[in-house]
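ok so i was messing around last nite and threw this chain in just to see what happens. nothing serious, just curious
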Amino acid sequence: MKRLPVVATVVVLLAVAAMIALGFWQLQRKQEKEAALAVYARNATLPPVAFPAIPVGDSLLYRRTTAFCLQPTGWSTEGAGRFGWRHIARCRTGAEGPGFSVDMGVSPDLGYKPTWRGGEVTGTIAPEPSHRSLIAGLFDRHVRTLMIVADKAAPGLRPTPPPSPESIPNNHLAYAVQWFLFAAIALVIYAIALRRRWRGQR
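result:
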């Protein structure tokens, strides 16, 4: 009589169940991403709005906006691939309020010191760069902070390419297929291992 090894079988079945669950999770993520992309595409066609006083959330992403920077209180840099380095100003808007960030352009020089002193900003609302880990991004519902990508660059900088929802990948279906394939492959490999084990017992 052919007997299944209990521990090994339980481990394999748990792993396969986890892979299948991850596949269905990716299908759910695909639907969520498609809905978000539809909102972003619509935002890109709407008239400009004032930049929100509390710049968080996703509802205004990729919409045109205007704001007034009383004074930059600091600068940071972010890599922009072949474009060089993005120079992002942190702006003061008044005695109260969280202020906002604005991407004032790119430079090939990481150490460049912009001389921009503030003023009216017109541009596109985009996610502010985040340094959260990939694992954290996968498993929690982080509320994104918004920033402006300015149309007109600060002196000495080149305008950062305007953000577009078309650049956002939606590859969750491919990930789902991969997880389902992994589950199937695991079952096939285990079946082959069992067959060899039973042949050896004979």
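not much to say yet. The first strand starts at residue 49 and ends at 50.
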